[in-house]
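Model: You mentioned two targets. I'll fold them one after the other.
Researcher: Yes, keep them separate.
Model: Target one:
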Amino acid sequence: MPQQPNPFIKYSNLAFQLAVPIGLGAWGGKKLDAYYNNSKPVFTIILSLLGIGAGLYLVLKDLIKPKQ
C-alpha cells in the first residue's frame, strides 16, 4: 500500500504553484513597462492578472483532480 503524502507538503506545493506565475507576471510586466517607458504600470497589471489566472488554474486543477 503506497504511503499518503504529508498534507503540509501537498499544500505548500500549491502555494508555490500560485506564487510563481504571479511573480513571473509582475516581474515581466515591470520589465515591459520599463522598456516602453510607460508612465502607468499597464503591463504589470495585465501580466499580474494573467499570472493570477494561471496560478488559480494550476491550483484548482490539482485540487479537483480525482484521487487515485
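Model: Target two:
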Amino acid sequence: MRKFDCIIIGGGPAGIFCALELVRTKKDIKILILEKGHDLRARTCPSREKNAPCFGCTTCAVISGWGGAGAFSDGKLAYSTEVGGMLGDYLEPSQFKEGIKYIHDIYLEFGAPEKLYGLENLEGVENLQKKASLAGMRLVPAPIRHLGTGRTQEVLQQMQDYLLDRGVTIETKTPVASIKVKDVAAAGVVTKDGQEYEADYLVCAPGRYGSEWLESEAQRLELDMAINPVDIGLRIELPAAVMEQITDLTYEGKFLFTSPTFEDRVRTFCMNPYGEVVMENTDGIVTVNGHTHAEYRTENTNFALLVSKTFTEPFKQPITYGKYVASLANMLGGGVIVQRLGDLMKGRRSTGERIAKGLVIPTLLEAIPGDLSLVLPYRHFLAILEMLKALDQVAPGVYSPHTLLYGVEVKFYSSRLEVSRVLETGLRNLFVAGDGAGITRGLSQASLSGVIAGREIARRSQ
C-alpha cells in the first residue's frame, strides 16, 4: 500500500489541471494520477490506421488515455462562460470569468496558439446573430481558441512532462475499481488489479468514458445525484463553402433552437471547418464525432445537432437510454450509418451508389449507407430536421439533398453529483471534476473545474 497526499482518477483535462494547480501551489506534494487508458504516445486506433470498421478495442484509444477524449478531439477552447457546462452554477460571475482567462493563459504557456476566433469582426458576428434570430435561433457569442488535433497532443504531452518533472506519479492502464472510505471521508482507491493506494484527498475526474463507473460508485457511497439531460443527435457533413460565412466569423457557430413541434431544445455542437468525421467506441458501442486538424484541410465542414432531453421520475438511466439508441445504429449498420438528406426525405435508405452520386464526398469512409429514420426516435429526428431548415436560412445550402447525416452521436453525461461550491461531494475530501461528473461539457470548463478542486485541496493542506 502506498500513501499520497492526493489521488486523481482520470488523466483528462480536469485531472491534469487539478495536478497543475497543486504542484504550482504546494511544493513537495505527493500526487498520483490513475488513468484507465494508454499513455499519450501509445494511443493508436487500429481502425483509423487501416481505414477499417471499428475493431471494438477493450479500451478505446480515441476517447481514453492521457489527455482524455480531448487528446484526439478538435481541440477547441471556448473563451466564454455561456457554453461548456454548468460550472457557472458554483461560481460567482467574476470568479468564472477570471477562471476562464486563467486556464487559457495556462494553455498558452504550454503551446496553444494566440489567435482567438470570433473577435476580429464583431459587426459581422452581430449581423449573424440577427439572421439567426430571424430564423428562430439564438447564436451564442463564444470566442474560440483552436488547437487542432495534432497540436492538442503536443500541448498535452508538454503538460505531462511538466508534471513528471515535478514528481507527480502517473500510472496509465490502471482502471480504478472502487473508492476507499474511512471515518466518513475519502481515504484512497482500489484498482481493478487489486492494488491499494491511500490519500488524504481524492479527485474523481474520469471523463465521459468513466461516467457510468462514477455513477455506480456514487450510488454505492449513497451520494446525492441529479439527473442530467441526455444529448442524442446526428453529425452533419456538407461542403465547407456552405458554412464559410459562419466559420470565417466565429470558427464554431453555437446555435440554440427550440423545435416548434415538440419544443425540444436543439443545439449545434463541435463544428469542424474543413474537418473530418470520425468514430468513437464507448464500451463496445460505436458513435460518431468530428475533428479539424491543424496540419491539413478537407473540402467539408461537419457539426453535430444534438437534441437535449431531461427525464423525470421514475426514469433514472439517461446513459443507458443513450447507449440503447446508439446500439440500434450499430445493429442495423454494424457501426456508424450515413444517409443523404435527399434519400431520407424520399423515405428510402442510402446506398453506396446513391452516396457516390452526391456532391458531398464522405470523410468517414467506414460509415455504412443506411436509413437513420429506423434509429432515432421520431421527435428527435423531427427536431433535427426543423433546425436544419432554420440553419438553411442563415447559411443557404444546409438543407440540401446532398447533405450527409451520420448517426448516432450521443453525449454520455453522468448524473450530476450534488457538490459544494468547491466541488466537494457529500463524502468529506472527495472532490469531482470534469465531464464525467456531469458538471462540464468541454475543455475550458473541465480544465477550470480541476483548478477549483486543486485550489481547495491546497488550501486545506496548508
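Researcher: Noted. Anything on target two?
Model: The mean pLDDT is 91.
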